[in-house]
Specification:
The complex is a heteropentamer, with 1 copy of chain A, 1 copy of chain B, 1 copy of chain C and 2 copies of chain D. Chain A is of the alpha/beta class. Chain A contains 8 helices and 13 strands. The radius of gyration of chain B is 22 Å and the shape is flat. Classes of the chains: A alpha/beta, B mainly alpha, C mainly alpha, D alpha/beta. Bound molecules: adenosine-5'-triphosphate (ATP) (2 copies) and magnesium ion (2 copies). Chain C: One of its GO terms (molecular function) is transmembrane transporter activity.
C-alpha cells in the first residue's frame, strides 16, 4: 500500500529498524529511513494493500525491547536466528540477506588473512556487542588464546586508523563496508578470499502479532524473492547479490 | 518483558571485575581535575590579569566541545603522531603498546577540570567577605589565606557538587570503550553479545554503578557532616 | 588526519547539524525547567529534613545519580506505560519524545538538587533566623530570602551541567529522535565521516556556551547585592504625608 | 500579656538557661541585664523559637505554648506575634534597606504594596535613613544596619518586640533618639523585652529590670529597686561601673 | 609613628572620606568619634588596606605607602605591622577560639607551636575565656567573640592596633576590664587607633580625640579640649548626651 492507503483504512504496522546501520537501515540526509532492510520492507508494503508500514528507528538492543513490549509489531534489522530470540519472538519464514564476514587487514602493513587460524598471535579489533565480536569469541572459546581480541566502540575513522597504523593487525567486517572505508578515506584495505562466517537475516515479529499479517508478509517476501525484486535491491544497496536461497 | 535473573547475575559477575578500571579512570581524573580546577578558580577569584580572562575563555570553549570529539581527536592524533614523536625522542614505546586508558583519563580529566573550576568558583562566592578581612588584617599571605581560611570553608560547601562530579565521572568513564578500554559497561555489553540480552546487562551495570554511587554518597555524607558542623551557625 | 578530516565536509554538514538544534534545545530547555523546579523542591525537602518525603527524595536522587541514564530511559519508556496500562491509562499514542523529556527532566532534577542543596547550606543561618523572626513561612523564606542568595553559589556548577546536557541528549537517538549529536552520528553512519559532524556540533555548543555565559554573568552581577539599586519603587509624597499623620508617632527631632 | 515559665536550655552538656520565669504586662518594657555569656541572647532566642528550649512554656495573649510540644503551626503563629532585633543585625542580604522592611509586611501582614511602602518610608524617615533606602546591607555602616533592623521589627507591629542590644552599634546621638523611639512605641501599647549593656538606657526606658547571671535570674524589680536598692552582692558588683558613673 | 595624609575614598559617586589627615605618635591612643555613617569604619579599613583608598598615603615607622600605588608586597608588609578588631568580630569560622589566636602567630610571626599556644593561653586568660577556648565562633556569645577578636589582635603585637567599636558587644564589667587592658597595652608602648561610641571610655583612654562627620575631621585635640572646651557647634551637639550624663 502506498501512503494514500492510510486513508483507505489499512492497518498501520510499526516496524522497528536502525538509525545508523549503513547500508541496512539508517536515516538519510533528509532524515528519512533508508537502506536495504528498509527497502525490503517497503517492497513488501507495496504488495500488501491491507497494511501500511511505518518505521521506528532505534539502536539494536532497543529495537528488540521495542518489539518485545509491542511498541513495534515487526522488526527488520539484520536479525539472525538465535535460540534465545526464537523463544521470545516469531521469525519470518525466509531469510532476506546473507551475512558474510571477512577478515580485513592492511596489505601495506602486513598480510591478507584468510581464516581465523591465520591470525595466531595477532591483535584483532571487534566492536563490542556485535556479530563480529560474537563470532570471534565463539572461535576463541574453541581455540583459547588463538589471537588477541581487542574490544572497543570505534568510529569508522578509528577502525581504519587502527588497522593502517598497526595498532591492531586486523578486524572483521562485511565486504561492502571495506569498500566504503577504502572509498571514504583513500585507503586500500583488503579482505580474505573466503568469508569466515555466514548466516542469514530474517524479519522478526512480536508473539502477539496478528498471524494473518505474518502470513501475508511471508508470502509477499517469497514472491519478491522469486520475481527478482530483492536481488535488485541487494545489488543497489549492497553492491552484489546477497540474497539467500 | 521477560527478564532472566541468571543472565543478569552472569553479567554482574563479569562486569564487576572491571570496577577497578572504572574507578581508576574516574578517581585519577577527579584528582587531576580538582588540582587544575582549583588553580583556575583561584586565578579567577584573585582576578590575575590576563590569565583570568584566558581561563574564562578556555573554560567556556572546552565546555562546548563534546567529550566524544575530544576522545576521537586524541585517539586519531595519537595514533598518527605518537610513533613519530616516540622515534624522534628515541623512546622504545610505540602506539601499539600504548595503554589506551590514558587517552580516556586525559579526556575525563578535562571534564573534571572544567567542572571543578566552576564548582570552586561558586563555593568561593559563598565565603563571606568578612573572612577575607580577617585574613588580611592579620597579614596572611594569599597562599596562607587560601589554605587556612578559604579552602576549609569552601570545601564543605562544595562537597555535594563534587559527589555529583565523581558519580558523573564514573558514568562518563564508559566512554573509554571508544578507545578499547574495557570498563564495567563494556564488559557487561560483551556478556550480552552472544544472546543479545542487553536489558539484563544494563541492569547489571546499573546495579554496579549504583553500588559505587552509594559508597561515594556515604563517604561524602560523612565528610560533609564532619566538616560543616562547625560552620553551620556562621555569621557575616 | 588528512583523509579523516576536511573543513569542506564540516561546512557541508553544518546546516544539517544546525537543523537538529531545535530538538536539542527543547530537550535541554524542558529538562532544565523540570530539573530546577523539582530539584529545588527536593533540595528544600532534604535541607528541611521533612520526614518521609526527604527519605524518598534521597533514594530518588541516589537512584538517578547512580544508574545509567539509558536504564532510566528504559524504565520510563517501557515500565511507565505498562504500569499506566494496568490502571487503564493508554499512553501508546504519546509522542516518544515525551519519554525523553521525562527522563532528562528527572535526571537533571536529581543532579541539580544536590547543587542547590549545597548552595542552600552555604547561606548563613542568620538569614534563616531573620526570616523566622519576621514570621515568614518556610516557603516564603526559601523563595524570597534563601534562593536569591543561593544563585551566585550554584550558578557556575549549574552552567557546566547545562552545557554538558546539550551534548548528552543523544540518548534520544537510541529511540530514533534526532538531536544535534544524533544528527552527527547519523551523518557519520551514511558518509563514514563522524569527525566533521562532531566538529560542527562543537561549534554550535561553544556558541551556546558563550551565550549562556553572558546570561549568567548578568545574573551573577544582579545577584551580587553589593551595589545600590538604581531604580526603586516611588510613591507620591502626598500619601506619605497623610500616612505620617495617621500613624501619629512624632518624628524624632535630630539634635 | 506574656508569661514565661521555667525556660530551660542546654547546649550539649552545658546548661545555658536554668529555668527562667518572667512576666511582662501589656505595654511594659522589661530589660535583661547580665554579664557576657549569661544567656541573655539565648533566652530571647528561645522566646521567639529561634532556639527551641528544652523545657518550659510561653503564654502570649491567651495562648500557652509548651515549648517542647509545639508544632510548626503553633510556632509560626507565635512568631508572627513577635519580632526581633538582632545583635548581629541579621538583615536580608539580598534586599535593600527598604525592601527589608517592605517584604515581611507584604508576606505576613497582607498589606497592599502601597501601604507597605508608605509605612516603610515613614519608618525610614524615623530612623534617619531615607537617603540610604536603596542600599544593600553590605553597603551600610554598622549603625545604619542596626537602625534598619529596628525599623523592620517596628513595622511588623507585633504583640511583643524582642531587642538584643539594640543600641550597641549606635552612636550616643542615636542612642538618645532610639530611647525616644522606644518610649513612643511603648506608649502605643507595644510590649518589649530588651537586652542591653547601656545602663543609663535601661534605667530610663524600663518598667522592670531582670538581672541574669549564669542562666539564672539573680534579681528583678523596677529600675529604682535594682539600681538604687540593690539586694544581691553580684548585682552590686556588676553595676559598680554604672553607679560610679552616675555619682560623678 | 604613623602619619596619614589626605585619605580619600569614594563608593561609586558617594564620597565617604574627603581627605583625612592624622598623626599618631608611638604609644598614643587616638580615638575617632562621630555619628553613624560618618566614615569611621571606612577610615580604619583604609588604614589597613582592607579597602583601598583612592588617594593619600600612610607613613608607618619609616616607610611611606602611597595607597593607590602600593603593590601586593608593600601592602602585606603594612598589614603585618597593623592589626584590627572588627565591629562584626570577623573571627575565622572554621577555627576554634584558641586557633583563631594561634594561627596568625604561627603563620606570620614564625613562633614555635609551644610559644604560640602559651601566648594564646595567657591572652585567653586575660580576656576571661580560657574555658571557651575550644568553642567555634558560632558557639560563642557576642561579647565572647568580641574578646577573642581583641585577643587575636593583641597577640600579633603590631606597631598599630585598630579597634572598631571594641566594646560595643561588651557588658559594663567587661568594658571596665577592657579599658584596663587597653591601658596596659598602651603602657607597653603599643599604638592604637580606636572607634567607639562609649564617650566615657574615649575620655578616659585617649591621648587624642578626632571628631569626624561626613567624611571630614570636624575637630581634634586632647579629650579635655574636645569634651570640655568644645569649639565646634556640631561636636557640642553630638556630645550633649554624654556631657548631660557627666553632669548628673
Ligand atoms: N550553639 C552553642 N553551642 C554551645 N554553646 C553555646 C551556643 N550558643 C551559645 N552558647 C553558650 O551559651 C552561653 C550564653 O550565650 P548567650 O549568647 O546567650 O550570652 P549573652 O548573655 O547574650 O552574652 P553577650 O552579652 O556576650 O551577648 C555562652 O557561654 C555561650 O558560649
Ligand atoms: N560598600 C559600600 N558601598 C556604598 N556605600 C558604602 C559602602 N560601605 C559603606 N558605605 C557608606 O559609607 C558611609 C560610611 O560608612 P562607615 O561604615 O565608615 O560608617 P561608620 O562611621 O563606621 O558608622 P557606624 O558608627 O554606624 O559604624 C555610610 O554612609 C555607608 O552607607
Ligand atoms: Mg548576646
Ligand atoms: Mg562602623
Amino acid at each position: 500500500a502506498t501512503e494514500s492507503a492510510a486513508d483507505s483504512g489499512a492497518t498501520e504496522i510499526k516496524v522497528g529498524t536502525g538509525n545508523e546501520a549503513l547500508p541496512y537501515a539508517y536515516l538519510d540526509e533528509n532524515g528519512k529511513y533508508d537502506g536495504y532492510d528498509v527497502a525490503v520492507v517497503k517492497a513488501i508494503d507495496e504488495k500488501l494493500t491491507d497494511y501500511t508500514f511505518t518505521f521506528e528507528g532505534a539502536d539494536f538492543p532497543t529495537t528488540l525491547s521495542n518489539l518485545e513490549s509491542n511498541k513495534v509489531q515487526m522488526a527488520a534489522f539484520e536479525y539472525e536466528v538465535n535460540a534465545d530470540r526464537q523463544e521470545k519472538f516469531v521469525y519470518g519464514d525466509a531469510g532476506y540477506v546473507v551475512w558474510d564476514t571477512y577478515i580485513v587487514s592492511d596489505p601495506d602493513a602486513g598480510t591478507v588473512y584468510q581464516s581465523f587460524a591465520d591470525l595466531a598471535g595477532k591483535k584483532v579489533y571487534a566492536t563490542t556487542a556485535t556479530n563480529q565480536a560474537a563470532m570471534a569469541e565463539t572461535y576463541l572459546k574453541e581455540n583459547p588464546g588463538a589471537f588477541e581480541l581487542v574490544y572497543g566502540e570505534y568510529n569508522n575513522e578509528q577502525i581504519v586508523q587502527a588497522v593502517t597504523s598497526g595498532a591492531v593487525d586486523a578486524t572483521l567486517a562485511p565486504k561492502y563496508q571495506v569498500d566504503n572505508w577504502n572509498r571514504s578515506f583513500n585507503e586500500n584495505l583488503a579482505v580474505g578470499s573466503e568469508p569466515v562466517h555466514n548466516s542469514d537475516a530474517y524479519l522478526l515479529f512480536n508473539k502477539e502479532t496478528d498471524p494473518a499479517l505474518i502470513a501475508a508478509v511471508n508470502t509477499a517476501l517469497e514472491e519478491l524473492k522469486a520475481d527478482g525484486t530483492i536481488k535488485e535491491l541487494s545489488e543497489k544497496y549492497l553492491d552484489g547479490d546477497y540474497v539467500p536461497e | 518483558m521477560s527478564f532472566k535473573f541468571e543472565v543478569m547475575f552472569q553479567s554482574l559477575k563479569v562486569a564487576s571485575q572491571y570496577v577497578g578500571t572504572t574507578l581508576f579512570m574516574a578517581i585519577t581524573a577527579l584528582v587531576i581535575g580538582v588540582i587544575l580546577g582549583l588553580g583556575i578558580a583561584l586565578v579567577r577569584l584573585y582576578r590575575i590579569k590576563g590569565l583570568s580572562q584566558f581561563f574564562q575563555a578556555v573554560v567556556t570553549l572546552l565546555k562546548g566541545i563534546p567529550m566524544v570529539l575530544i576522545i576521537l581527536a586524541l585517539y586519531l592524533i595519537a595514533s598518527k603522531q605518537f610513533d613519530v614523536w616516540a622515534k624522534s625522542m628515541h623512546w622504545s614505546l610505540r602506539f601499539k603498546d600504548f595503554n589506551m586508558v590514558w587517552i580516556a583519563v586525559a579526556a575525563l580529566s578535562l571534564m573534571a577540570t572544567i567542572n571543578s573550576s566552576e564548582i570552586f568558583r561558586g563555593a568561593f562566592a559563598a565565603v563571606k567577605p568578612g573572612q577575607f578581612d580577617a585574613a588580611k588584617s592579620i597579614g596572611l599571605t594569599n597562599l596562607q589565606t587560601i589554605r587556612r581560611m578559604l579552602l576549609p570553608q569552601a570545601i564543605p560547601i562544595s562537597l555535594p557538587m563534587f559527589s555529583n562530579l565523581l558519580i558523573g565521572l564514573v558514568k562518563a568513564s564508559s566512554l573509554a570503550s571508544m578507545v578499547s578500554v574495557v570498563d564495567v559497561f563494556a564488559a557487561a555489553k560483551i556478556t550480552a553479545q552472544q544472546n543479545y540480552r542487553f536489558l539484563e546487562a544494563y541492569v547489571a551495570v546499573a546495579v554496579i554503578y549504583w553500588g559505587i554511587s552509594l559508597v561515594i554518597e556515604k563517604i561524602v555524607q560523612i565528610l560533609e557532616e564532619r566538616m560543616s558542623r562547625k560552620l553551620r551557625r556562621a555569621i557575616l | 588526519m588528512s583523509s579523516f578530516f576536511s573543513w569542506d565536509l564540516v561546512w557541508e554538514f553544518f546546516p544539517k547539524i544546525l537543523s537538529a538544534l531545535p530538538v536539542t534545545l527543547l530537550i535541554v530547555g524542558i529538562a532544565t525547567f523540570v530539573g530546577l523546579m523539582l530539584g529545588n523542591f527536593i533540595a528544600f525537602m532534604r535541607v528541611e529534613k521533612i520526614p518521609i518525603v526527604s527519605q524518598i527524595a534521597a533514594v530518588f536522587v541516589s537512584f538517578i545519580r547512580g544508574t545509567p541514564i539509558l536504564v532510566q530511559l528504559y524504565i520510563v519508556y517501557y515500565g511507565v506505560p505498562s504500569l499506566l496500562q494496568a490502571i487503564q491509562i493508554d499512553v501508546s499514542s504519546w509522542n516518544k519524545i515525551i519519554f525523553i523529556y521525562i527522563t532528562y527532566g528527572l535526571n537533571t532534577a536529581a543532579f541539580q538538587s544536590e547543587t542547590i542543596r549545597a548552595a542552600i547550606l552555604s547561606v548563613p543561618i542568620t538569614q534563616k533566623e531573620a526570616s523566622i523572626a519576621c514570621g515568614l513561612t518556610k516557603s516564603q523564606m526559601y523563595l524570597r530570602v534563601i534562593l536569591p542568595q543561593v544563585v551566585r553559589v550554584a550558578l557556575p556548577a549549574f552552567g557546566t551541567t547545562t552545557v554538558a546536557l546539550l551534548q548528552d541528549t543523544s540518548l534520544a537517538f537510541t529511540i530514533g529522535i534526532v538531536d544535534v549529536v544524533g544528527k552527527a552520528r547519523a551523518i557519520g553512519a551514511v558518509t563514514f565521516h563522524t569527525l566533521e559532524g562532531y566538529v560542527g556540533a562543537a561549534v554550535l555548543f561553544i556558541t551556546l556556551s558563550i551565550i549562556l555565559e553572558r546570561v549568567f554573568d548578568l545574573l551573577e552581577k544582579r545577584m551580587n547585592f553589593t551595589e545600590a539599586k538604581k531604580t526603586s519603587f516611588q510613591l507620591p509624597s502626598l500619601s506619605l504625608i497623610k500616612k505620617v499623620q495617621k500613624i501619629g508617632i512624632q518624628k524624632i527631632e535630630t539634635n | 500579656m506574656m508569661e514565661v515559665r521555667n525556660i530551660q536550655k542546654r547546649f550539649g552538656k552545658q546548661e545555658v538557661l536554668k529555668g527562667i520565669n518572667m512576666e511582662v504586662a501589656k505595654g511594659e518594657v522589661v530589660t535583661l541585664l547580665g554579664p557576657s555569656g549569661s544567656g541573655k541572647t539565648t533566652f530571647l532566642r528561645c522566646l521567639n523559637f529561634l532556639e527551641r528550649a528544652d523545657e518550659g512554656s510561653i503564654v502570649l495573649g491567651e495562648t500557652e505554648t509548651i515549648v517542647n510540644k509545639a508544632n510548626a503551626k503553633e510556632i509560626l503563629a507565635h512568631q508572627r506575634q513577635t519580632a526581633m532585633v538582632f545583635q548581629n543585625f541579621a538583615l536580608f542580604q539580598n534586599k535593600t534597606a527598604r525592601e527589608n522592611i517592605v517584604m515581611p509586611l507584604l508576606l505576613t501582614k497582607n498589606k497592599t504594596k502601597q501601604e507597605a511602602y508608605e509605612l516603610a518610608d515613614v519608618l525610614l524617615e524615623q530612623v534617619g535613613l531615607s537617603e540610604r533606602q536603596d542600599f544593600y546591607p553590605s553597603q551600610l555602616s554598622g549603625g545604619q544596619q542596626q537602625r534598619i533592623g529596628i525599623a523592620r521589627a517596628l513595622a511588623l507591629n507585633p504583640k511583643v518586640i524582642l531587642f538584643d542590644e539594640p543600641t550597641s552599634a549606635l552612636d550616643p546621638e542615636l542612642v538618645g533618639q532610639t530611647l525616644t523611639l522606644l518610649r513612643d512605641i511603648a506608649e502605643t501599647g507595644a510590649t518589649m523585652v530588651l537586652v542591653t549593656h547601656e545602663m543609663k538606657f535601661a534605667y530610663e526606658v524600663s518598667d522592670k529590670i531582670i538581672f541574669m547571671e549564669n542562666g539564672q535570674v539573680v534579681e528583678q524589680g523596677t529600675p529604682k529597686e535594682v539600681f538604687e536598692q540593690t539586694k544581691e552582692e553580684r548585682t552590686k558588683a556588676f553595676l559598680t561601673r554604672f553607679t560610679n558613673q552616675m555619682a560623678r
